[in-house]
Write a structure and sequence with these properties.
This protein is of the alpha+beta class. The chain has 2 domains: 138 residues, Ribosomal Protein S5, domain 2 (2-Layer Sandwich), CATH 3.30.230.30; 78 residues, Alpha-Beta Plaits (2-Layer Sandwich). Helix content is 33%, strand content 36%. It has 6 helices and 10 strands; from the N terminus they run αβββαββαβαβαββαβ. Strands 1, 7, 8, 9 and 10 form a 5-stranded antiparallel beta sheet that branches. It has a 5-stranded antiparallel beta sheet with strand order 2-3-6-4-5, sandwiched between helices. 33% of the residues are buried.
């Protein structure tokens, strides 16, 4: 992850689960990618695939976790040391995502290999496992996550709809509106970066003629 992305509080992850298959010199390489946020979830994927492909010889894996990719693990699962897990991990950590960033995280890759009878050699295995993960990533649905500061904006019943529309038109992320007996509360999410709140307050003042003051809530990571 670049220093800019880390400072801005954003990274890229997988939208759900994705799988692909390659045949390389008669060996089948089935790669499954899954969004995971903990080591337990990552290891659960390996366990799931061991049950699904119980007759396969190898279930090699790699995962990258955390908002700044602080957890990175890999396993060769019986392949010669360094020929499977590490190439898979490098395919994840070096993958360019949005705007050329290398910020992929909260993702686990498992490559299941059915041996086809032809030895690939150390170099061939490195290329095969790296290519398998890279091929899966090339078609996987990715999304950007960002650390956002939430604010609540009080509004009257009559003004809430118009104000929500103004906010959305201005490119401000509206996460929901709650209506109560006394009025409505609109919740918005702003990038948790310097200057964001000041610009937002100026826009809100213009929309409401200074009649509404946002109340800061908590900070959350949100899928964009």
């Amino acid at each position: 992850m670049s220093d800019i992305d880390a400072a801005a509080g954003r990274y890229t992850t997988l939208a759900g689960e994705h799988r692909t298959e390659l045949e390389i010199r008669r060996s089948r390489f089935i790669t499954v990618l899954r969004r995971t946020e903990t080591e337990e979830q990552a290891r659960a994927l390996v366990a799931d695939l061991r049950r699904e492909f119980h007759d396969a010889r190898h279930h090699c894996s790699a995962f990258v976790l955390g908002t700044v990719r602080e957890v990175q693990r890999s396993s060769d699962d019986g392949e010669p040391s360094g020929t499977a897990g590490i190439p898979m991990l490098e395919a994840l950590t070096k993958r360019e995502t949005f705007d050329g960033a290398t910020d992929l995280s909260d993702i686990t890759a498992v490559t299941v290999r059915y041996f086809g009878g032809i030895l690939l050699g150390a170099g061939g295995l490195v290329r095969a496992y790296s290519e398998s993960v890279s091929a899966a990533l090339s078609t996987a649905p990715l999304l950007r996550r960002r650390r956002m500061q939430l604010y609540s904006i009080p509004a009257g019943h009559a003004e809430a709809g118009r104000l929500e529309n103004d906010l959305r038109t201005a490119g401000i992320s509206v996460t929901g509106t709650e209506y109560g007996a006394a009025g409505a509360n609109i919740t918005v999410a702003l990038p948790d970066i310097p200057g964001s709140a000041g610009t937002f307050r100026e826009r809100l003042a213009a929309f409401t003629a200074g009649g509404s003051t946002p109340e800061p809530l908590n900070t959350e990571w949100i899928d964009l």
